[in-house]
Every structure is written in C-alpha cells, then in structure tokens.
Specification:
mainly alpha, two-stranded antiparallel ribbon, 16 helices, about 5% strand, quinone binding
Length: about 475
C-alpha cells in the first residue's frame, strides 16, 4: 500500500511552492473573499432555514430575498460604540478576537478547492498550499484559535466570560481527541496526511478480494469509513461551539459567555471566527470523506466533470450540505447539559473511535498480507464472544435488578412512622402507619356495618330510614 502511494505523493506535493508571488497573493485574497462571502451568505441562509422550520418568512426586505440583510447587520455592528470594561487586561483583551479570526482564516490554507487551473495563463493547483501533514496543520491551527476564546474570557475580568473560556478549552480537549482518532482511519486508507492526496485517493474505489470474489469498494471514505465520518460529524459541531453544543456562550446560563464584555468590531471578529470555522470544518469533512472537489456519482461518469473550474462548484455544493446540517441541528435540538456533553465525548465518542481505529488498522494489515479468510473468521469469533458475554451480563444484571426490587419491596413493608423526623410526612406507596387502617379497609368496614344494620336494625342506617319513613307519613 505504501509503495503505491509514495510516488503519487511526491508528484502531487511537488506542484506546490513554485508559484510566483502574485499568484500566491491572488490565492490568499481569493480565499479571504470566499470566506467573507460565505459568512454573509451563511447568516442569511441560517435565518431563512430556521424561519422555514418555524413557519416564518425570515429576512425579505433588504435586497432580493433579503440577501443584503446580513451585510446590513455587519455594518451596523461594526459602527456601534466600543465599550471597554474597567478591569480588563487591555492588550490581551484586544488581541484575543484577532487571534481567533486569524487562525480561522489560516486553517483554510491547505484545503483543496479544485484541480490544476489556469490563472492569467499560469497553471497552478486551486489550493493555496499543501504539506505532507496538511491535516495536522488544520488541527494545530484550530487548537491555537481556542486561545483567542480562552484569553478573551480571562482578560475580560468578569465571571461569566471566564467560565465560557474554560468551557471552550474543555470542549476543545475533549472533542479534538475524538476528531483526531477519526482521521487515523482516513490516513490508513489513503496512505497520506496531505489533503490533496487524500482527495486523489478517493478518485477510484479500491478492490477487495474476499473468499475468491473481487468486490469493488466505494471511493468516498464517508461510505467505507462510516463510523469515522459519524464521529467527525459530532466532533466538528462540538469543536465549533455550535448548538446543541454552544455551552461556552450559553445565553441562559452565561449571558454571552466568553464574548459578554465585547462589543462592536471585537465582537464582530469573534462572530466572524465562528462562522469561518464552520466553513473550515465543513470543507475538511468534504475533503476527507466526500471526495473533495471531485464530482459525485453519477456526474463523475462525465469525463469533463473534474476538469477546469467546474469542480469548484461541486466543492461549494458539498460544503453547503454540511452548513445545512449545522443549521438543522440548531433548529431541532435543545442545548445539552454540560455533564451530558462531556459524557458524550469521553465515555462514548473516544472509546468508539479507539475501537474503530484498532479494527481498521487490523483489517488493513491482515487484508494487505493476504489473510482475508482468517481475518473474517477472527471477526466472526470476536462478534460471537461479545454476544455471549453481553448475554451473560444481561442475565446477571436482570437477576441483580430483581433482587434489588425484592429488597426494596421488603423495606417498604416495614412500619412507617410519619413523625420520625419531627414533621408529618405522608407514607410512600406500600408503606403503612402503625395502628391505622388503610383507606380502602376503612371504607369497606363502614360499608359492612351499614349492611348489618338494615331498616329495622338499631344502627345509624336504620334510624335514618325510620325517620325518613315518619317524615313521609306525616307529609
């Protein structure tokens, strides 16, 4: 596997670093403009989609279909008065939003937007740059972007921003571990950590020989490595602090979280960093799991679908699908509690990602060595053992639960003293007060006494009947 990929890696990476300075400047400017336009569009898109989910209209006044509403909001926010609290650390307070915004734009530099194209007669890849460890660069830059949030919360000199910053750092640590483990399976299948080469590795499906049969596996890693794809989807929502994981800026708990003491342009930079990060993680998901800029099937059957500037359209379309998922989650799911959020990361995502990574590594090693039959026999044996152990565990858990239920019922049968703590307390179901009959027994006893003392008896019922008869005769 490695010997087949290395020549391709050398050839692909050799295409970078040879552009003249003006081409590099055009690419950098183009990425900046693309991300700014994406941010303006995504704000409008989010408001429109959420409005449709809530049976509202959404923006419709400024520009066609309300498209200029986001631009008007941005201008209004940037022209607001800048307010600086008294207890802030001025230098860090000003630099924090700049760090977040700068890292958000930098992470997009290794994302491939298309194949080799012609820019003013110069042939160049539609990508600013690439590295042999391009995906690790994205993770490193995203980690540095969290420093802006943490420093912004600390430098504000207030309790709510500090709590929001600490929450954000905890989220980054928790969910970036699962995200990194989800990438390992992609690295094993593609044989590279370069973003451009991962896209090229998904150009054609791989063939697997199982029990003498040749099976053509799909090309997109979202299908081949579905657990990795699902783990990354959850992790990228937690990494970008978006609902239902928007705990660093939970309005109901922390006012605005780390951004509580920010206003005007500084708040706008935090806002911009969040939406740019959404685009970046969506573009990374497209690159690693959906074939990057390559056309989806059946458009890929057309020979010209992956040539020129047209693949840039496929790339934008795939990114917009992920943006819709972000908005869909925000309009559907309530915010998690913080303990639920951390439990999901540490007790579910990370263990599942570890087990899946070991499975993928074992599968790649055994299948490459020609042990197809032995590998599948081993997987079947492991599944049977796991099922047997789960059956034994469920049986023991059921017996334990029955024993605990019986013990609780026995404890409830003990006489109950409602005044044991000094205050009258009503009994729980199944408990009884010593010396008192339950309500149902008392009612049945009264009914029996009434039946024993009929119209001619000496009881209360008889007397009431006789008096009623006398009143009737007198009437």
């Amino acid at each position: 596997m490695t010997t087949a990929v290395l020549p391709l890696a050398a050839g692909e990476l050799a295409a970078f670093g040879k552009d003249p300075w003006w081409i590099v400047l055009i690419k950098a400017l183009g990425i900046t403009v693309l991300l700014l336009v994406f941010t303006i569009f995504n704000v409008w898109f989010e408001r429109k989609v959420v409005a449709r989910m809530q049976h509202r209209t959404g923006p419709k006044v400024h520009g066609p279909f309300g498209l200029l509403q986001s631009l008007a909001d941005g201008v209004k926010l940037s022209l607001k008065e800048t307010i600086k609290p008294k207890n802030v650390d001025t230098v860090i307070y000003v630099m924090a939003p700049v760090i977040s915004a700068a890292m958000a734009f930098t992470a997009f530099s290794v994302i491939p937007l298309g194949p080799e194209v012609s820019i003013f007669g110069h042939r160049t890849p539609l990508q600013l740059t690439d590295l042999p460890v391009g995906v690790l660069l994205v993770l490193a830059v995203a980690s540095l972007g969290i420093y802006g949030i943490v420093l912004g919360g600390w430098s504000s000199g207030s309790t709510y921003p500090l709590l929001g910053g600490l929450r954000s750092s905890a989220q980054m640590i928790s969910y970036e571990v699962a995200m990194g483990l989800a990438f390992v399976a992609v690295f094993l299948y593609s044989g590279s950590m370069s973003t451009s080469e991962i896209v090229n590795a998904q150009a054609h499906g791989s063939a697997a020989h199982i029990f003498g049969l040749t099976i053509q596996l799909p090309s997109w890693y979202a299908i081949v490595l579905l657990p990795s794809f699902l783990i990354y989807l959850v992790s990228m929502v937690g990494e970008t602090n978006r609902a239902p994981f928007d705990l660093p800026e939970a309005e109901g708990e922390l006012v605005a979280g780390f951004a509580t003491e920010y206003a005007s342009m500084k708040y706008l930079l935090f806002f911009l960093a969040e939406y740019v990060n959404m685009v970046t993680v969506s573009a990374l998901a497209t690159t690693l799991f959906l074939g990057g800029w390559r056309a989806p099937w059946p458009l890929s059957m057309w020979s010209g679908a992956n040539e020129g500037w047209l693949p840039f359209v496929w790339f934008i379309g795939k990114v917009l699908v992920f943006m819709f998922v972000f908005i869909w989650l925000r309009g559907t799911l309530p915010r998690f509690r913080y303990d639920q959020f951390m439990r999901l990361g540490w007790k579910f995502l990370i263990p599942i990602a570890l087990v899946w990574t070991v499975f993928v590594a074992t599968a790649r090693a055994t299948l490459s060595a020609g042990y197809q039959r032995q590998f599948f026999y081993g997987i079947g044996a492991v599944i049977l053992v796991v099922l047997a152990l789960s059956f034994v565990y469920d049986a023991r858990a059921a017996r334990k639960e029955q024993a605990e239920e019986a013990a609780r019922e026995e404890a409830d049968r003990v006489d109950f003293d409602p005044f044991s703590g000094g205050y009258p307390v009503p009994p729980m179901p199944g408990q009884k007060v010593p010396g008192l009959q339950p309500a149902a027994v008392a009612v049945s006893a009264d009914a029996g006494a009434a039946r024993e003392t009929g119209p001619g008896g000496s009881g209360t019922a008889g007397r009431s009947t006789d008096s009623a008869g006398q009143e009737d005769s007198r009437g």
